[in-house]
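User: Hi! I'm working on a homework problem where we have to compare a predicted structure to a textbook description. Could you give me the structure for the chain below?
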Amino acid sequence: MGSKQMKFEEEHIREFEAATPFNRSEIIHIINTHSAFERFREIYNMSDANSPTSLVNESGYINQEVSVPKKLVAERLTELKKNPFRYRIVDIFSRADGEMMNFVEFLDMVSAFSPKNPLKHKICYAFQLYDIDEDGIISKEDLFAVMDILMESPLEDHKKDQIVAQVFKEVNKENSDGLSVEDFHYAISRAPDFSSTFRFRI
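Assistant: Happy to help. Predicted structure tokens:
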């Protein structure tokens, strides 16, 4: 494609502007010169499952139907491939097709981890990562699963129980079945380095 400018339909630019922390000029910059699109194209070129075959349609607009395997995004995107939550992250942002991720979803993921994204939004995304069974509550079982993801060596169940009990105690939920979004927000707000760790630049 060389230096040819990429174009998005106007309605999609407005959707991006409403759904991400980027303004219009930043979105256009991302599409045309920012590496987010280039990184998506690199993954697209690695994929055997890309359909349709062209990233750009006959009118010169980015083809909205283009998608890549989300597993490939998790394993090949530098900012994700060493993240223990990489598969959970792509799952959360690729809802339209179970195994695939399109550029709209890819840009949504990038914006979620942007330094510009408000803390409250990042906390909501983090909650989704920890809510493994996606029932709207971070339960003891969810936290056990999270520890399994994070730990190189498995912890014994009694040690997991101690950690969960301490977490619940911190938010005054000792007798609760789990943590709500509000509970989780309270817990994260007491971790001053959360915002700096829940981020990456593409």
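For your comparison, note the following. Residues 95 and 101 are 8 Å apart (CA to CA). The beta strands are 67-69, 100-102, 138-139, 178-179. Good luck with the assignment!
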